[in-house]
Amino acid sequence: MQDQSCRCGDGTLGWIIVALISLFDASWLYLSGHSVMWAGIFAACKGAGTLICLAVILRALSGVRRYQVVTTRLRYAKVVDIAAWCALLLCFVSSTCVTSYLCVSINAPLIDSGLVAFDRSLGYDWLAAYEWVQRHPHVQKILQVAYASGHWQLLALPVLLGLFGRCEATSDFFFLLVLASTYLLLISTPFLAASAFIHFGVEDRSAIATVSDFALLRDGSLRVFDIANAQGLVSMPSFHTALAVLFPYSFRQLRLLFLVALPLNAVMILSNPTQGGHYLVDVITGLLLSALTILTLNAFSRRGANVRTCSANASAGVIGEASSERLH
Fold this sequence. Notes:
Helices cover 78% and strands 1% of the residues. It is mainly alpha-helical.
């Protein structure tokens, strides 16, 4: 019962966070004159609503005595948790996409030249690395698959953790995502970088299409956001790199999944410069971002555990005193 109540509390806190982000986005949109396409909002709400309805229906069925044997055998409780966390993740990702677009629209000075200079001081030439990958299609294909896996892993992770009964790990991943996104926007908004694709004038249309909204946001011509086709516009730190650490970290208690996730995400880190248009320093700061995120969550977890321990000890002391008084 303690684990269940803890998970419910985590989910409630998650929805409060999403509500606050949505309120922040709505206020900023109103004050700045931007807006979001209703089709994208409707799609996100429809997906989240379907998952929530599924969770509610299955939870109700599991409470009916005649269905309890079936619901227990089919592990409805796990499906309920998976659906609820997936709905929460969908809403969180949608709301933070809007926030990231608004942060880019501030039009802060670009720092790409400094990032290129830093890369070169480390002996890394982004353009040479990109051209080498382009000349080796088999390497490029492997890197493309690894880079694209980030989206699929984000969808698969809560499902796999839920099926293996690791609801605490699902909760931890959600809050890792919240912390990483918060740090990401706090760092990237004042220290804005376009992308190596834009800086070096890459002619690959498919690459440019992944960051085409960047210039439109900065010059003010993009006023309506389509979150259904949102682009990852934050270059530094690299969020893909941070996720490539957080994915295997979240699977660390499941040996088989961890052993699969580790090499896949190692390749995803390598793919970030040429497939995501990131500078080498973006990848380095992405690794630092993931470390900071994990340390922060662990610090919060330890503090929460200490508070619960103190509360339990205090309660035990009160009960002991009351029992002693009754005996006297």
